[in-house]
Amino acid sequence: STQSTGTTCSMQWLVLLAVLPLASPFQITVGLPLQNLDLLDTSFWRIADPSSPDYLRFLSLDQLGNMIGAHHHTIANTSAWLIGMGGHSLTVSPLRDTVTAEFDEDGSRAEGWIPSRHPGLESDFILRRDQQSSADHPPARNQLASSARSGTLGYTVSGQKQAYGIPADLTATNESTLQMVWGPGTFGYSVSELSAFKDSQVPLLNLDKVKFDTANHGHSGDNYMEGNLDTQMISAFGLNVSTLVSNTNTSTSTEEGNGFGQAMLDFLVSLSSRSQLPQVLSLSLGSLSARSCNMLCHKAADKGIAPDDCKKFIQQQRQVCMFMSEAEQTRINLALKLLGARGVTVFGSSGDGGAHFSFQKFEGGQIADVLNQVSCEYQLPVFPSSSPYIVSVGGTVGSGLFRPNLSKPKAWEGSGGGFSWLFEAPAHQADAIRQYLSTAPDLPPSSSYNKTGRAYPDISALAVEGTSQSSPIVAGIFSLLTDARLNQGLPPLGYLGPRLYTSYASHPHKGWTDVTSGSSATSCSNGFTSQQGWDPVTCLLYTSDAADEEDSVDLGGRRIIKKKKNKEYNRNRM
Predict the structure, then answer these.
(1) Residues in CB range of 345: below 8 A, 6 or more apart
(2) What CA–CA distances, in Å, run from 38 to 42, 285, 330?
(3) What is the pLDDT of residues 206-245, one digit of tens each?
(4) Of 395, 390, 389, 385, which is closest to residue 419 (Cα–Cα)?
(5) Which residues sit opposite 24 in a β-bridge?
(6) What Cα–Cα distance (Å) separates residue 90 from each residue in 22, 27, 130, 288, 468?
(7) Among 162, 290, 378, 563, whose Cα sits 20 to 30 Å from the Cα of 261?
């Protein structure tokens, strides 16, 4: 058996409800506390550090399972507990981090029954997967989607590629290159809309390469529009890359409220145990972090708003507070780390509300007014983009109003950015953060943000439709880079953080376009400002010219560009 030589994951009990499109029986999954998390952390950063001898030596499923899998006695006790309640057909995940049992719906249990935790049971969370809810989803918002993607606002895929230095005919050729987008609720895509997008803008888009990951194909709703945007952008910029569109939970609660965090936890924990993984994953959906939401209601209470009224109100808002607790986020964070250790590059949208909101100001009376006041007094980070194991993608637009110039980008007004309250800044960000905080003019009050927290975003791309557009764009570009690497017998890039910041330090002016115009203040009187060098608004845009030295393609910045189709790669440098 595996012996524990490090810390174990100790969290509060999380009770989660997921929905899967199955008739009876339902499933109960127990998340198990993991071992050797200190060893995992050391291994992760050695794999991600370009200066390490273990750089890009990713861990296999078996290696990770042997490292972090739960004790055999924990698995046995959990299995016996589930069987004692009527569970059968038990399965243990390959990473030995979950045990799942089938249960028959016999009418003896209350609707939505979830077993109460046994006092002696070691576990992180318990999750029920039920049959699909028949409840209606909320109507979709009006978006810029069709007009922006059709190019009527001056933004076309060909124009973006020209500005980024990407040949319009650059396509993937390796059959093993795989990219993925994910979302719950109504998330999915329309085959006919993707076909129309191909006809109007991307004639080389291979429709046969885009497939659904599950039986959930989506339908009309906010997340369906999101899924169409994600699918179109990642397949347009990752031309001919096999693309999976994944929806693993169709519950109504995942569309707007804190059921989303439950669905994301279930998806990422399950994905990290799959035998075949995408090299690139884009996560456009998210909300304010649990700490940000707790802070909102705590500070609102000081202004006369009852905590229960505050929590009820924010759960009625669209995708504002969608995570149940910091413990839930910590377990999601761990799953992201496991994916990085296995070689997956995860991108996440930095948010559309600057440094203060998830999207925009609150509306709806006294509670909204108080929450807007509190929101402007603090810089409120979003999640999962503030995770240290995600490459956070901010947003830009072209300069100029009627004929936007994409070669001269400026910050998109809603581009999210800031500093995490929960996760510390990783070492590779230290110099960039220090430089920014020591030189930036008009910083927000120091008490309004955590200057030692993980800073975001890391890179950026076009966000005329919000950072939900920029993340899959960057993901698609990186899929092409991954494809080129695989064709050269090189491994994928995995977690990119240290390499991005190392690249900027190596080519601070030659290989980067600096975006120095913009602010994260949105409708508030304070926020972070763009300036020369890294900043938590727009930061830097990468161009490939300076990095094509010594037969290598280096990576960095907030927008990644591969300019030459047949560039050779130096194995010793990559």
Answers:
(1) 279, 280, 281, 391, 475, 478, 482, 492, 493, 494, 495, 496
(2) 6, 29, 15
(3) 999 999 999 999 988 889 999 999 999 999 999 999 999 9
(4) 385
(5) none
(6) 17, 10, 16, 36, 38
(7) 378
